[in-house]
Amino acid sequence: MDAVTVVEDEVRELVRRRGLDPVAEPGLVRSLVDQVVADYGERSLAGGLPRLGDAAGVSRSVFDAVAGFGPLQRYLDDPTVEEVWINEPGRVFVARHGRSELTTTVLTEAQVRDLVERMLKNSGRRLDLSSPFVDSALPDGSRLHVVIPDVTRESWAVNIRKFVVAASSLDELVGFGTLTPQCAQFLEAAVASGLNVIVSGGTQAGKTTLLNCLAAAIPASERVITCEEVFELKLRHLADWVPMQTRQANLDGRGEILLRRLVKEALRMRPSRIIVGEVRQEECLDLLIALNSGIPGMCSVHANSAREAITKLCTLPLLAGENVTHAFVTPTVAGSVDLVVSMALGSGGQRWVREVVAVTSRVEGDVIETADVFVTREGRLVRADGYPPHPDRFERAGHDLRALLAPRRPAPPTGVR
């Protein structure tokens, strides 16, 4: 038995005796690990025990095994890693800068199951044959998704999308080259003025990050309700913020709370503004009705362009039932949505705002008219000739819309980090 195994066994026994929760009390566990490693080092000098070698390395390995997520912890701690996934125990991948890499980490089926059980321990969510899928959040905000056989062929499929706080404001996104200063100032004013903003983009395009940064422009006096499948939004700068997430059914098949229910409940909570993390199904109808009633809001949608996002917003509400028709939905979208901000993801992992499109509220046939406010030309995000609706709201909020959108010198190419 090597030194790491001996120390780990001793730490686990002490954790059990003292009734510590490694996930909830990592600081206490870390102190305990350091004490056990120091004590073991002194005892090993007397002989009869394997030598420690690198004490710091042993402490890190034992802590990761007891309070972290074992062999995966180093990837979760690595700021260059954006996502970790397991296709089978011997094939663990990570994504860095938008590119996937097969790691040298090899697990066993038992280790994978143990890691998933530990990740789900305090989530209140379960994984079994009747519920072979699960979405949850890790303590650091990373998003967990797991699928088990017989939905998968043989092995558990695990995805961990890390919550990387790269930016918390639009100004910080400007520093990353995600958008230009003029576009950032315009979007900040639009949010502060109460316009309804939709963020669109593909997988990993930075929709949640942009949504967080847009929310930073919400006036501090507002009461904001957020609705998500799993907690991801971080609006801690707001004093009056209520985050809500969905819940899966219990073993009896009861107690499930869908995103649509959360949006309906949010309307009863005196919101100044509602934010939905991502609309994917019929909850889109309830959000549109809320926006159309005069409650400002934001959400994200999986779409590769602003026009595609608008089309999707006109389609998703139809899932709510046969009594919901295009004739109702299309003008509702036109009257509810003010701006669509489309994000793009480059092959090297860079993320940038591709376009900002205004919805004019006019409908010709089944087509909602739009106006380009910012577009990408020759790799640069530039001012187009369109204007957003509701200029009076900008004026009431103290913003000069003409000055915000006046021509400026060209900015550097977008997507530069």
Explain briefly what this protein structure is:
The chain is α/β, with parallel strands linked by helices. It has helices at residues 3-18, 26-45, 55-66, 73-77, 109-120, 170-175, 181-192, 207-215, 259-266, 283-292, 306-315, 326-336, 391-396, 401-404, and strands spanning 81-88, 91-96, 99-102, 133-137, 143-147, 157-161, 197-201, 224-228, 241-245, 273-276, 297-302, 339-345, 351-364, 367-377, 380-383.
Number of strands: 15
> Would you tell me which CATH topology of the largest domain applies?
Rossmann fold
Could you give the order of strands across the largest sheet? 9-8-10-11-7-12-13-14-15
Provide the β-strand percentage band: 15-25%
Distance between the termini: 48 Å
CATH H-level superfamily of the largest domain: P-loop containing nucleotide triphosphate hydrolases
Tell me the overall shape: elongated
H/E element order: HHHHEEEHEEEHHEHEEHEHEHHEEEEHH
The residue fraction in helices comes out at 25-40%
Mean pLDDT: 91
Question: What low-confidence regions span 5 or more consecutive residues with pLDDT below 50?
Answer: none
